[in-house]
Amino acid sequence: MTVMEQRDAYRPTPPPAWQPRTDPAPLLPDAEPFRVLGTDAAAKADARLLHQLYAEVVRGRRYNAQATALTKQGRLAVYPSSTGQEACEVAAALVLEERDWLFPSYRDTLAAVARGLDPVQALTLLRGDWHTGYDPREHRVAPLCTPLATQLPHAVGLAHAARLKGDDVVALAMVGDGGTSEGDFHEALNFAAVWQAPVVFLVQNNGFAISVPLDKQTAAPSLAHKAVGYGMPGRLVDGNDAAAVHEVLADAVRHAREGGGPTLVEAITYRMEAHTNADDATRYRVDAEVDAWRDHDPVLLLERELTERGLLDEEGIRAVRDDAEKMAADLRERMNQDPVLDPMDLFRDVYAEQTTQLREQAAQLRAELDAEADGADR
Amino acid sequence: MTTVAAKPATMAQAFGRALRDAMAADPSVHVLGEDVGTLGGVFRVTDGLAKEFGDARCTDTPLAEAGILGTAVGMAMYGLRPVVEMQFDAFAYPGFEQLISHVAKMRNRTRGAMPMPLTVRVPYGGGIGGVEHHSDSSEAYYMATPGLHVVTPATVADAYGLMRAAIASDDPVVVLEPKRLYWSKDTWNPEHPTDVEPIGRAVVRRPGSSATLITYGPSVPVCMEAAEAARAEGWDLEVIDLRSLVPFDDETVGASVRRTGRAVVVHESGGFGGPGGEIAARVTERCFHHLEAPVLRVAGFDIPYPPPMLERHHLPGVDRILDAVARLQWEAGS
């Protein structure tokens, strides 16, 4: 009998081995971004945590302003500002234990500083002296990553390795909305879910990848929805609400530490400045849009909450601002000193042991430097 | 102490034995890649590792080269020594950004704080009748990336020795495994400790006085055969097996060429922008006054890897090498 002769008996049947692996419902993000500040949930928030978040967000705002000023003075080659995104930066740093690891992108200097890195060391990449000005193991902060999303698989590998060694370490990896289009984003999330690695992915959706808006970046209902396809929970959070970001990340970190696997968190925020000082944001967005976000500013949201609850007064605000001003003054002063670089360092740390070829080239540079010095003496 | 007698083994077995011994000696050594576990690798190099060490140390990953290399970076950051398999030369390309931007640069970016003791295994080269994307000679890409070591053994003993050295290295090492030699056999004593070969040293496979053939990996046996055939023409050819492309052993190569005065570089990879151009330039810069003729290259053609039914015309064979050797009787003005 042929298939043609069988036609009457045909009825659709499912493929033999198919069955859904996971009920997608619990993985789906909420319809609305999760919020705490200005809602009933805020009353349950820990006052000390709110105050700490406020102090850090204000410091972060001042840090962004100072670093931006340093680009105008030629002290920094470039600074991708996170003004407007401080709540995400600060919450990402504060939610981690000392043993955990942070994997920042190039825009996340502030998260690294909030985690305890020396502000000057955190800026060496952007100043142009050395690529990574700190020992990543000291604060458990991976190098600020310039290629998009390539740090995400590192976070997965590190978290996986830690678990293999029996350490309850969590890795938190940060990426922008544009970075979610990269192949490494996909591969990292897939590996993390398959391995159930203790990783939290934080997408800061700040509206634009340089000039390209989100609707030209993705057709997904939200970036958090992408989690379902990998088999991990997706969470949507108001990225300007520091308390909400902290709570959602804390949940995700706890879930990961307890062996529950990875979570994808999308924080809805906005980049108030241009992509970097080399960018002209007026070419791709209008002032009215930026102004609308000013009313939803992360500093403002916290200040309002704390003031209304009587946890913050004029004097408290001044104290926090003075502290931020001190940090900025110190940063300004130290960044205004010219770094002393040794050109011979070019050949250090390419390999554990220099190759013959590099030794020859080092000797060549040494001779050139000696000749320059002789010329200067004459 | 028991002694194990030397016995015939294939290169694939020697690679596998090196992985096994490295894993037994150091619990931080982890093998990962597509099909390396249950199947034992498509070339069976990792056969038995998952059984002996468990799938946490010999891990079947999702099919994703950037993911394999990228997670290995994170594992190395946490103190492990990952050995990753790229399955086939041309399959490694999706992983190049991880390899070039992170694996090769991490030590330098972090000023020595974060070394990358990572081994990348790449079965490479043609001659096995593979369809397209299964026979590329990708060594020039790796050689052009500072921060990587690149080795490629041609003998069973070197397969073991270089793999052990690669895994022990605190720097990333790309081990190019010549597919066409996987099943080549040799008498080899797997217990012999001197088998571990330091990275960066070439070896004279066959001494000779009239010209030097400089080669590596899959072209070594071809050059040995050419050297035998050349005897009939009255040529006594020296054959150098580079073993390590980065670092490059200028000393061994230079000493040979200064003695013979003539050199041909032989490899499967295309000639334009290929390893031979670099090698010929290095030899010329160092041995110019000893050279009786220009340094010649016998390479694959500058074409995408051809279909298997035509690959024998592309791969440098004995005749093409002998033709080049004949051209070394070069006279000024000719």
List the helices and strands and how they pair.
The complex is a heterodimer of chains A (378) and B (334).
Chain A: H1 47-72, H2 86-94, E1 101-103, H3 109-114, H4 119-122, H5 124-127, H6 136-139, H7 151-164, E2 171-176, H8 183-195, E3 199-205, E4 208-209, E5 212-213, H9 226-230, E6 234-238, H10 242-257, E7 263-268, H11 287-294, H12 298-308, H13 314-335, H14 356-377
Parallel strand pairs in A: 1-2, 2-3, 3-7, 6-7
Antiparallel strand pairs in A: 4-5
Helix pairs in contact in A: 1-2, 1-12, 1-13, 2-10, 7-8
Chain B: E1 7-10, H1 11-25, E2 29-33, H2 49-53, E3 58-60, H3 65-77, E4 81-85, H4 96-103, H5 106-109, E5 119-124, H6 139-143, E6 149-151, H7 156-168, E7 173-178, E8 185-188, E9 203-206, E10 211-215, H8 219-230, E11 237-241, E12 244-246, H9 250-260, E13 263-270, H10 275-287, E14 296-300, H11 311-314, H12 318-327
Parallel strand pairs in B: 2-3, 2-4, 4-5, 5-7, 6-7, 10-11, 10-13, 13-14
Antiparallel strand pairs in B: 1-8, 6-12, 9-11
Structure description:
The complex is a heterodimer of chains A (378) and B (334). Chain A is of the alpha/beta class and 378 residues long. Chain A is built from 14 helices and seven strands. Chain A has a five-stranded parallel sheet with strand order 1-2-3-7-6, with helices on both faces. Chain A has a two-stranded antiparallel sheet with strand order 4-5. In chain A, helix 1 (47-72) runs antiparallel to helix 12 (298-308), helix 1 packs parallel to helix 13 and helix 7 (151-164) packs parallel to helix 8. The model of chain A has no long low-confidence stretch (mean pLDDT 94). The longest helix of chain B has 15 residues, at 11-25. Chain B starts with 6 loop residues before the first strand and ends in a 7-residue tail after the last helix. Chain B contains twelve helices and 14 strands. With 334 residues, chain B is α/β, with parallel strands linked by helices. The radius of gyration of chain B is 20 Å and the shape is globular. In chain B, helix 1 (11-25) runs parallel beside helix 7 (156-168), helix 8 crosses helix 12 and helix 9 packs across helix 10. Classes of the chains: A alpha/beta (378), B alpha/beta (334). Chain A binds chain B through residues 130-132, 135-137, 142-143, 147, 150, 152-162, 164-165, 171, 183-184, 187-188, 190-191, 194, 345, 348-352, 355-357, and chain B through 30, 56, 61-62, 64, 66-67, 69-80, 82, 94, 97-98, 101-102, 105-115, 146-147, 149, 169-171, 200, 246-248, 250-251.
